[in-house]
Design brief:
Blueprint: H1 2-12, H2 16-33, H3 43-50, H4 52-63, H5 79-97, H6 105-110, H7 112-137, H8 139-148, H9 157-166, H10 178-191, H11 196-211, H12 229-243, E1 253-254, E2 257-258, H13 263-275, H14 280-297, H15 299-302, E3 315-320, E4 326-331, H16 338-345, H17 348-366, E5 379-384, H18 394-410, E6 415-421, H19 427-434, H20 440-443, E7 446-448, H21 454-461, E8 489-493, E9 497-505, E10 509-516, E11 521-529, E12 537-545, E13 553-558, E14 563-571, E15 577-586
Parallel strand pairs: 4-5, 5-6, 6-7
Antiparallel strand pairs: 1-2, 3-4, 8-15, 9-14, 10-13, 10-15, 11-12, 11-14
Helix pairs in contact: 1-4, 2-3, 5-13, 5-14, 7-10, 8-11, 9-10, 10-11, 13-14, 17-18
Length: 590
């Protein structure tokens, strides 16, 4: 046993937080198994040492994936994850039955008022209660003295209390509170100085009276005097029992999908489980907090709010990555516009509006995702830090931190990748500042690129025809000859080399698009016929294209004979260049 238990401890050593959770669970289990055993203290240690085996398996499963998304099909999950999913469903069903997803703030605001009233009433009743306590202590010694049948010594203060309470003695016959019954005992004891037998009978009657009648202080119960005290108590308990079980379970949905409905619900629950390393209780707490936050924040009503379009160039959706994830671009450089910056972050009210706009934008994007087990339910985030105001702007930093908290706490596992491009020198310091607010799983998805390598990094995950033209791609707004369905080709041109691109042409019209990221190269195009006696036609004379001249060169050529178009790119610089192009033939009639 000693050897077996030491091994899991060594495996679980890198995660001390998880060990603490295991210890608590094991102590509770050990206590529930043998609550009265004196040797229980030795056995929790064994349970603590055995259980980390399961935890270690779970952590290995969750840490194994960094950029590859795990399956959302319940049947394909490992056994520990299946078990965690089933346990989470049970907790959610119990919470729905008890209506635990209702936000509590409204009730909490009403509670202090009645509490204050109770505190005000307490001083008035405290004197009576203290007298009752004093009097209740009196019957005990009297009963003891009944066996001796000798009660000559009676203290003087007792008759004083009797005189004060005698005024309230007439309604004693009705079901009265315990205080009046106890005063009867004191009266009869004081009046029984001459005859000890009578005092014994009186005390016996008083004891029975105290035990049988229930506390009845309100006059409303006198109207139901025909009922016996036991029947009254049962009638009062029945409505309380009817209120405890809710008539129907609570219905809760997130992003338009019920928590417990079908396979789509499993996809959502798996997001929360993965965000908490498949710790069921933590995942349940996160779901509960998210549902309550959404109700308090008014997320469902937020979708229909008009918050303006001033920030449409700051955050926008554009295209898909190579795996089909929608891509969201965050352009922080737009905040170099002082007017836009002031209108967005000048005060708390404006920052709150920006946060609501950002949540609204994210909610609308999530509603377009596919939550089926084989669907795509995550987004790729591209963060452009070119000309960003930087972390020195206090207002921007506050809004960013607040948004990070909300997104990480309430939108788990919605980001497939976080790609940072045009990263400046200060980003390392900024990254160190926000790292404590990010989980290890979140940080494992981060990809950073300097300005010189930003396009290469984007093309690694997103096809050039899907990348906006301002980031080195071919995608542009408006009507174009090409669409995202027309795939582009990427080529890397080495320094001080000339590269040629050829594509065949028949009796038709051919169109093409070409761009070199950063340009600063010589470009030319010509048509070479297939026939040996044909003549080469210069389509575009060789010329130097600078970085700011053109982003994309589009051209076309119509011919009545077969041949080929030859594009020549001469890179005379000492840097590698990324070439992107595509072409297609159009019917001759067009």
């Amino acid at each position: 046993m000693a050897e077996e238990t030491q091994k899991p401890e060594a495996a679980a050593a890198p995660a001390p937080a998880e060990e603490v959770v295991v210890e608590k669970e094991s102590e509770q289990e050990a206590a529930s198994e043998k609550p009265t055993d004196a040797v229980v203290e030795d056995k929790p240690a064994e349970a603590v040492e055995e259980e980390p085996k399961v935890e270690a398996k779970d952590t290995k499963v969750t840490e194994s994936a960094s950029f590859k998304e795990e399956t959302n099909i319940a049947g394909e999950l490992p056994d520990p994850q299946k078990k965690a999913l089933d346990e989470l469903k049970q907790l959610i069903q119990e919470a729905l039955n008890k209506h635990e997803f209702t936000p509590p703030p409204a009730k909490d605001k009403d509670k202090p008022a009645p509490e204050e009233k109770k505190e005000e009433d307490q001083p008035a009743t405290s004197a009576a209660e203290t007298e009752v306590k004093v009097e209740t202590e009196a019957p005990a010694p009297v009963e003891v003295k009944e066996e001796e049948k000798a009660d000559p010594p009676i203290e003087a203060p007792a008759p004083v209390e009797v005189r004060e309470e005698e005024k309230a003695d007439p309604p004693v016959e009705a079901p009265a509170p315990e205080t009046v019954v106890e005063t009867e005992v004191v009266e009869k004891v004081s009046a029984a100085d001459d005859d000890g037998a009578k005092t014994v009978e009186a005390i016996e009657e008083s004891v029975v009276a105290v035990a049988t009648p229930p506390p009845a202080e309100k006059p409303e119960e006198e109207a139901s005097s025909s009922l016996k005290p036991d029947e009254v108590a049962q009638s009062e308990e029945k409505p309380e029992e009817a209120e405890v079980p809710p008539p129907t379970p609570q219905e809760v949905s997130i992003w338009g999908i019920p928590l417990l409905a079908d396979e789509r619900s499993d996809v959502i629950l798996l997001k929360f489980l993965r965000a908490r390393d498949f710790k069921v209780k933590d995942a349940f707490t996160m779901i509960k907090n998210t549902v309550i936050w959404r109700k308090e924040f008014g997320v469902d009503g937020l979708l229909d709010e008009e918050l303006g379009n001033e920030l449409e160039k700051v955050v926008f959706m554009h295209g898909f990555d190579k795996e089909g994830h929608p891509v969201c671009y965050n352009v922080y450089g737009e905040f170099q516009n002082k007017e836009l910056y002031q209108n967005t972050f000048a005060d708390e009210e404006k920052r709150s509006k920006f946060l609501r706009w950002r949540i609204q934008f994210l909610e609308k994007s999530i509603r377009k995702l596919d939550f089926s087990p084989n669907g795509i339910s995550t987004i790729v985030q591209v963060n452009d830090l070119k000309n960003s105001p930087g972390p020195g702007k206090r207002e921007l930093r506050q809004a960013t931190n607040q948004a990070l908290h909300l997104l990480q706490d309430n939108y788990p596992e919605f980001v497939a990748k976080q790609v940072f491009i045009n990263v400046p020198w200060w980003y390392l310091a900024f990254n160190m500042m926000i790292s404590p607010f990010l989980t290890q799983r979140t940080k494992s998805k981060f990809v950073c690129a300097s300005p010189a390598k930003s396009s290469d990094i984007l093309f690694r995950y997103i096809a050039p025809e899907q990348v906006p033209v301002q980031y080195g791609g071919l995608s542009r707004d408006g009507e174009q000859e090409f669409t995202v369905a027309d795939a582009a080709t990427e080529v890397t041109i080495k320094p001080a080399t000339k590269h040629s691109v050829e594509f065949p042409v028949t009796e038709s019209t051919v169109v093409w698009e070409v761009r070199v990221v950063g340009w600063d190269v010589n470009y030319g195009a010509e048509f070479v016929p297939t026939a040996e006696d044909g003549y080469t036609v210069i389509v575009s004379k060789t010329r130097k294209v600078g970085p700011a001249d053109e982003t994309v060169i589009s051209n076309s050529f119509k011919t009545g004979e077969p041949g080929k178009i030859v594009l020549t790119i001469d890179n005379q610089t000492t840097k590698k260049k990324k070439l992107v192009y595509r072409s297609k033939a159009k019917p001759y009639s067009e």
